[in-house]
Amino acid sequence: MNLPDQMLVEMLSLGQRARAAAKAVRDASADQRTTALHAMARRLRDAAPAILTANAKDVDAARTSGKAESFIDRLALDAKRLEAIASGVEIVAAQPDPVGAVTADWTQPNGLRFQRVRTPIGVIGMIFESRPNVAADASALALRAGNTIILRGGADSAESVAAIVAAIRAALREANLPEDAVQVVETTDRAAVGLMLAGLGGAIDVIIPRGGKSLVARVQEEARVPVFAHLEGICHTYVHAGADAQKALDIALNGKMRRVSVCGATETLLIDQAVAAKLLPDIATALSNAGCELRGDDAARRLTPMNVADEDDWRTEYLAPIISIRVVAGIDEAIQHIAAYGSQHTESIVTEDQDAADKFLREVDSAIVLHNASTQFADGGEFGFGGEIGIATGRMHARGPVGAEQLTTFKYMVRGSGQTRP
Amino acid sequence: MNLPDQMLVEMLSLGQRARAAAKAVRDASADQRTTALHAMARRLRDAAPAILTANAKDVDAARTSGKAESFIDRLALDAKRLEAIASGVEIVAAQPDPVGAVTADWTQPNGLRFQRVRTPIGVIGMIFESRPNVAADASALALRAGNTIILRGGADSAESVAAIVAAIRAALREANLPEDAVQVVETTDRAAVGLMLAGLGGAIDVIIPRGGKSLVARVQEEARVPVFAHLEGICHTYVHAGADAQKALDIALNGKMRRVSVCGATETLLIDQAVAAKLLPDIATALSNAGCELRGDDAARRLTPMNVADEDDWRTEYLAPIISIRVVAGIDEAIQHIAAYGSQHTESIVTEDQDAADKFLREVDSAIVLHNASTQFADGGEFGFGGEIGIATGRMHARGPVGAEQLTTFKYMVRGSGQTRP
User: Fold this and answer.
1) Using a CB-CB distance cutoff of 8 angstroms, which residues of chain B are in contact with residue A235?
2) C-alpha B139: how far from its chain's center?
């Protein structure tokens, strides 16, 4: 048997173990899953020395191979970051268990009673890159929703992920749940990702990718099972004619500059012609002073000095301290711009005009639409989901931050008294 | 320009028109969609002569080409069937409009108010075979949920579908909605299906196939967009030790024999050892008298004469008057059998024991789990959905009968008062 065959056997066996564990995790009580999550948090804290030692190896290797500092920063753990990971697991433990929740309940004229009840999706395949915290966050959310998970991290974080998962699996055993509820793909062969995207012989119900554009492109191309995809976040802040000046400035500045590398960062500022002369210069100065490059259309550039925005700018997710600025005639043009150039991720309107706000929230077809709040709230933690396993930009099943509830599906329970169908 | 290029241009243009129409249908009021649905029902009735003439052409062509009677039966319309189609559209018109329904509403400590609101999926691609009624049923449900639809029927029903869709588009115009909310792919080139499965240049949000195994296989293989797939319905009726004898007989007989060709038909009967000797002979006789072939395991064959069931029988969706019968030790073995051989479609337990019923409904991981009712209730109409666009056997987004509610997605509306993220 050559190496690829060996890998195939190992991968399929991994999938079978995940599927076998899924029934026990699904049928466990909510209390049992909660107990396991508390044990996970405790054991992650107890294993801090081992996890930090493993992480130091990953960081050394990354430095030796000349990785960029931004990469090292995503990879590196310290006591504080590890505590944040453990606390995150406790927040998930405190979330209501979604399994078994009744989301609809009705009775038909023939006496049949129908209930739609949340059930776990089953087996989640998580493909991520260098951030080791994803292993703990994703495992906790998967377990909260009664799922099992197969983790495939980047080779660069392999030692860290192995140490984190060892702590998690010990916690599962302690709670009398199968340790195979959380498994790691150990081979670094890229073919393993292909097997996961093909569903691992029917063992994987959904793939959740978290990573850069090349990973996303590969998933789009190869996946034969459902995917919670995260594409771009070309997010807009729209300053309406009825905006409060201070709120407009605060929300534009925070939306763009709080963190420029997150998917919920504002990339384009739209501002109504009626208030542009009054509000744009101050907003532009504040952004500029914070280190942001401004690129505007002709109307914006007549009001305040900035670079030229071309057609490509409206379609660009900068993930950098750059913002494109366009003056619009009014709310309809703003909504049209967002429909034409946006990525249906997150958009915010700043206005004191309730009708305009309602129209914007209703007509803009994005996963998250905000009124008088920063686009940077596009985050599962800020939604109260106790973290997120990712943000979905697709329209099916999950949309926006994916928390435990979005990791469930449902079934119909139907209770009768002997009914047959005429 | 050669023919395939011409087809590509036409198909992409079809997709763009569907996408363009989607905003108007989405932003229309519920009343406007209801008005359009009532107009559809009326115009389908008014167009009865034209539709029946068109259908007669399809039926003649099918007869000439030697199609089987069962095929002709699926294809043929008469006044009664057409009235049933129009009535079905009226039932959908009477359904609550799901768009805008708030399914969750909470406020975070920072004062941000979150609402999860149902929104249309967008553009539905419907691929079906010979039943012309699907064109009307699917268009009505798509419109109820604020979607537009692209229909691709089989070449055999082309005249019928064209006549039905002409009536539907006239109704849309009458209600001031874009007629391109419902469109038909006119080319019979199979490559058109491939273009739809690839998403028609980003214009299609979800594919719903309704047809035989070769269509399903092609969709599974080629689809690059989400699919509400319908695979097999290997449905089980389980007679528990605590079953009422009369209910067991009625439910087994109805579950199998009411209509043997539907996906909710029972294919395997499981019966507890404790009651098999008492109940199985009568059930077997009733099935046999109704024209059903029996195939049993050794234990069943010791109790009543029948053919031998082999391993393949447990995995077979007969869609024919044949039933496989297995005697099980108890509820755990029944649940295990269903997990091992079932297709997670529809299963029923017959028992007067409430604990056993609850365990079965909780632990069996199928889209529909019933207690003391026939598996033939697996139908959107019976669920009160006013029809169904299909039954989904996948686990993502929609599961079981797909009505208007399952043709929606959601977005988060977030209302603030100037919040920025720390």
Assistant:
1) none
2) 14
